Amino acid sequence: MKQPPDWRLYLVTDRGLARGRAIAGVVEAAVRGGATAVQLREKNCETREFVELGRELKKLLGARGVPLIINDRVDVAIEIGADGVHIGQQDMEYERARKVLGPEAIIGLSIETIEQARASARLGVDYLGVGPVFATATKLDAARPLGVAGLAEIRAISRHAIVAIGGMGLENARQAIEAGADGVAVVSAICAAEDPERMARELRLVIDGALSIRLREQRTVEIGGGQPGLAGAPGDDQ
Ligand code: TZP
Ligand code: MG
After folding, report:
1. How many other C-beta atoms can be found within 10 angstroms of the C-beta atom of residue 53?
2. Local structure of 48: helix, strand or coil
3. Can you point out the beta strands (E) in the chain?
4. What percent of the chain has pLDDT over 90?
5. What is the per-residue pLDDT across 102-128, written as a single tens digit (0 to 9) for each?
6. Ramachandran sector of residue 218 (left: φ over 0; alpha: ψ -120 to 50; beta: rest)
7. Is 166 in the pocket of ligand 1 (CB under 6 A)?
8. Residue 139 is among the residues annotated as catalytic for this protein
9. Which domains, ranges and CATH numbers included, belong to the chain?
10. Nearest CA to ligand 1 atom 13
11. Which of 16, 24, 86, 177 is 20 to 30 A from 157 via CA?
């Protein structure tokens, strides 16, 4: 059985935002800072260069045990031995991608609406990229932001791991985790950061902090027989 990846801090690349730096250097710095997964997503890149970039990242990330996911291109994922693909609603259908890539591959799916989240319940995807949660200038054709309430609604109806994407950064990562996301995916927050390693480290602090509070609260609810607030509240002597 394949191990579920750690989605806490998912870096999605965009070299156009990287201040002229090579994207591999940004990725390496982000991983040093604590990025747990990386998606190669370069919308303005010819296939040959995309494959070369993918190979470079696979080498770098494989050595560090960080999964590399390829955006859209199942053929490129196979060619470079990537860990999986991320597909959008208009890309190759999930079933076909699974057939081509096999049971061990990680397959992620973009979800922009509640309806899409409902429809994804029957699919054996490994995670959902849910967003945009907040407004973003990075993806010009992005749907209307779901907001934290939309993210929470999707969490409530979905059995899959959820990564929140779109306008995510230090100021709102905690909100996404509180709404039930398993991790946060960022493009500009890290790619455009002056110091990507430091940004990744700070994001991880926020995300890990919010996740540990959520886990503690879940445990408290379980011990309290499913009723929040019954067990473990300070000063509660019932
Ligand atoms: N999918 C939904 S929003 C988005 C993608 C790829 C872009 C997110 O970019 P940023 O810079 O983290 O807002
Ligand atoms: Mg796509």
Report:
1. 22
2. helix
3. 9-12, 37-40, 68-71, 84-87, 106-111, 127-130, 161-165, 183-186
4. 89
5. 999 999 999 999 999 999 999 999 999
6. alpha
7. yes
8. yes
9. 9-224 (3.20.20.70)
10. 167
11. 86
